[in-house]
Design brief:
Largest sheet: none
Helix content: 25-40%
Order of helices and strands: HHHH
Shape: globular
Structural class: mainly alpha
Number of helices: 4
Radius of gyration: 14 Å
Distance between the termini: 35 Å
Length: 96
Amino acid sequence: MQKFQQVSTQLGSEMKSVGEVMSLGRSFEEVLQKAIRMLDVGLKGFVCNDLKFENLDKELSQPTDKRIFAIAVALQKGYSVEMIHQLTKITPLVPS
């Protein structure tokens, strides 16, 4: 959504724009990295983007186009998977 001016970054049920990427790889981590880089918005991947969030808990709680990067920052800051789950309501991966 960074490519479009005057578009709210707040995500909801209304589709404002659709950006699809296709990335093939041997693991989820590999395809996520490729997909983020293919967005062509100047990000290096899931981590190493130097993004700063004034209120990380709020950024995690609200679905925006930057929330996945807020999750990366939270993990780097030592947030537990359970804490991230509580803030995002994203179902954590259960190891098999």
